[in-house]
């Protein structure tokens, strides 16, 4: 079984890491699977993958793509590439949608503009044989565009890195942890992630420091907010770090105040590390965790965020045990890869 995966770039981002984990873990359970990755953009520091990777604009290797039994796209450009070249593909074509398109683009464009993007993207996907979505919430949303038999729910899954972090970062976090309880998060710093809510509440959480792993367009605004609120010394921005889940072991609590998600890998990684989790009360988070497993808070409500932190502190041991149990049952990369293996074989009528 030859499987080609098409990506925008080999960047250190959630959807790309999902694709990487599919390759790495499915190869272990299906010895007949041969993977290739094709990508659009050359970048300075690409992630490593466990299969041959080719620049899609280099036509020398495109025969491998067109002759694959399964072609799996992630993102609008890969999806459009299949749409435009569908007659050239010998095998079955699937796409994984990693979020609610109109919601995500609604933060950048008008509601009408975001809806038009969603309509155009889902129209492109009608030439695919199957569409994978990450949650039942997403499936319900996309039923307005696709027949139910074309939609398939597969949760993201992640295995955790066992590598140690840099000594400089260890010294910083250990020193900080001697003075404060650490609230931590790892994500791309955008408005959608809602980190300003934590910074806003920090003056009223004097026993806590907030450690942020990641970079992005909102970093400068968050740093300025922390300075204006007088919490700059308790609000630590470490910048981007490879395999950021390695830092979870140094956090006392994992806080995830996002306004919207597909199925957040960082949250799954925190659960896998056995962290007590505090997260925004949105439907995606409610689907993957219960109130017995994490501490929810209402968006844009500083007092409720503070209450949720206090609850996580009180039930810390319970939340830690419940989160890791949930992770092991549903959200490892092995579980995810097995479900994709079943889907691929089903599409090829090998069951």
Give your account of this protein's structure.
- There is one protein chain.
- The chain has 351 residues and is α/β, with parallel strands linked by helices.
- Helices cover 40% and strands 18% of the residues.
- It has helices spanning 14-29, 62-66, 76-85, 101-105, 111-124, 136-142, 167-177, 196-201, 219-228, 265-272, 283-288, 302-314, 316-330, 333-347; strands at 2-9, 34-41, 53-55, 70-73, 92-96, 130-133, 151-153, 181-186, 208-213, 235-239, 253-256, 276-280, 295-297.
- The strands form two sheets. The chain has a seven-stranded parallel β-sheet.
- Helix 1 packs across helix 14 and helix 10 crosses helix 13 (316-330).
Summarize the topology.
Layout: E1 2-9, H1 14-29, E2 34-41, E3 53-55, H2 62-66, E4 70-73, H3 76-85, E5 92-96, H4 101-105, H5 111-124, E6 130-133, H6 136-142, E7 151-153, H7 167-177, E8 181-186, H8 196-201, E9 208-213, H9 219-228, E10 235-239, E11 253-256, H10 265-272, E12 276-280, H11 283-288, E13 295-297, H12 302-314, H13 316-330, H14 333-347
Parallel strand pairs: 1-2, 1-4, 2-3, 4-5, 5-6, 6-7, 8-9, 8-11, 9-10, 11-12, 12-13
Helix pairs in contact: 1-14, 10-13
Structural class: alpha/beta
Shape: globular
Strand content: 15-25%
Unreliable stretches: none
| Rg, Cα atoms, Å | 21 Å
- Give the strand tally: 13
Q: How many helical elements?
A: 14
Give the structure's gist in a few sentences.
By secondary structure, the protein is an alpha/beta fold.
What are the key terms here?
alpha/beta; 14 helices; 13 strands
């Amino acid at each position: 079984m030859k499987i080609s995966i098409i990506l925008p770039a080999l960047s250190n981002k959630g959807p790309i890491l999902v694709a990487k984990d599919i390759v790495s873990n499915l190869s272990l359970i299906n010895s007949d699977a041969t993977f290739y990755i094709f990508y659009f953009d050359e970048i300075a520091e690409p992630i490593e993958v466990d299969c041959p990777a080719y620049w899609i604009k280099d036509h020398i290797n495109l025969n491998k793509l067109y002759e694959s039994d399964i072609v799996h796209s992630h993102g609008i450009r890969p999806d459009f590439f299949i749409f435009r070249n569908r007659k050239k593909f010998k095998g079955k074509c699937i796409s994984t949608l990693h979020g609610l398109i109109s919601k995500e683009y609604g933060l950048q464009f008008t509601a009408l503009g975001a809806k038009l993007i969603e309509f155009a993207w889902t129209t492109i996907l009608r030439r695919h044989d199957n569409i994978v979505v990450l949650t039942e919430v997403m499936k319900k949303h996309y039923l307005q565009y696709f027949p139910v038999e074309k939609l398939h729910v597969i949760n993201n899954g992640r295995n955790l890195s066992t590598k140690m972090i840099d000594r400089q970062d260890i010294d910083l976090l250990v020193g900080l942890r001697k003075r404060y309880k650490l609230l931590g998060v790892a994500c791309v710093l955008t408005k959608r992630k809602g980190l300003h809510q934590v910074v806003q509440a920090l003056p009223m959480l004097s026993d806590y420091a907030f450690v942020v792993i990641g970079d992005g367009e909102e970093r400068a605004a968050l740093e300025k907010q922390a300075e204006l609120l007088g919490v700059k010394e308790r609000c630590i921005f470490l910048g981007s770090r490879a395999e950021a889940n390695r830092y979870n072991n140094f956090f006392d609590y994992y806080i995830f105040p996002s306004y919207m998600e597909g199925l957040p890998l960082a949250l799954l990684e925190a659960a896998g590390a056995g962290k007590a989790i505090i997260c925004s009360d949105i439907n995606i988070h409610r689907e993957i965790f219960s109130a017995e497993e994490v501490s929810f808070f209402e968006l844009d409500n500083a007092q409720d965020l503070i209450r949720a932190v206090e609850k996580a502190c009180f039930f810390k041991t319970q939340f830690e045990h419940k989160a890791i149990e949930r992770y092991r049952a549903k959200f490892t990369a092995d579980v995810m890869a097995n479900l994709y293996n079943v889907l691929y074989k089903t599409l090829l009528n090998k069951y």
